[in-house]
Amino acid sequence: xxxxxQKYPRLPAPGNPAKTEAWALLESARLMEGAKTKDxxxxxxxxxxxxxxxTIFQASLVDAECTVPKEVRANLLGLANFIDRHxxxxxxxxxxxxxxxxxxxxxxxxxxxxxxxxxxxxxAASAPTPPAPQLRETx
Length: 139
Description:
Layout: H1 4-7, H2 17-35, H3 40-62, H4 70-92, H5 99-126
């Protein structure tokens, strides 16, 4: 029997796109990992869900208003292209062992996003706070 934590996964808090993206990648990795031991339909469902996620990332990366630096954007689009090709291969031959590469990519990118968030939070916490403005009495 599945534990309640597995049955009802935690959702990310709204308002932080990087954390939401990390959560989506890690959740997709978890679903694909779990689907490796399930039936073919669940395996294909997990693969298609991951493909949709990466399609959303691709659409964001080619958007004219995308703020991701060009070099990072090019690298992510190249990775997304690889994921497209690899996913199509898995759909043609649903071998559970082929999911490992997608699971690893999602975990590495997701953890990288979370590490960036932790680093930014640590920097913000250690930054000296400017002194509060002094109110002057008027006579």
